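Request: Could I get any protein with tokenized structure?
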Amino acid sequence: MQWTLVIPLKPLPQAKSRLADTAGDGVRPGLALAFAQDTVAAALACAAVADVAVVTDDERAGRELSALGARIVPDTPGSGLNAALVHGTAAVRRVRPGAAVAALNADLPALRPAELSRVLGAAAEFPRAFLADAAGTGTTLLAAAGDRALRPAFGVDSRIRHRALGATELRLAGVDSVRQDVDTGEDLRAALALGVGPRTAAASAGLLIPGS
């Protein structure tokens, strides 16, 4: 099964506010962009991925991610993460009716194509499925096969909400790169330990990361 990934990205100046103790206001937008670039590049290199749609209104991010091969979908609703994902999924399925769609976080800078392929292969066995984040409370990937509605419920405690909405939780070992999103300095240290992509490595090289 080939998947279309829908990746939401808020305007860069508003992104990654919880990294304030690690990266200053002038650094965080570039760091958020680097996360997204490495995520998109790895996703496009995955054999199970047909294409990637990024939902964003950020002009800089749109240019950079389009140059990598992503399709840019304007965030017309402008009503937050879940509304952006519903909108992006609808845009994808207008072009490819019945496409298998997976929502993927934009902050997975250590993402490995082979690990993503394993997760998507497992997701293909269920109408809807999700992968919990490294912290065990959130979600980094939510998949809907065929013409199933995505029904995203990202945000605080999304693991519980996605399970309550009937999505099957994927319990896979060895896919740490797909679980490791980055919201805090501790998350960034964990991603760096896994091995991040080149853009994140460059953007984070000068940071003083607490505890490192």
Summary: The longest strand covers residues 49-55.
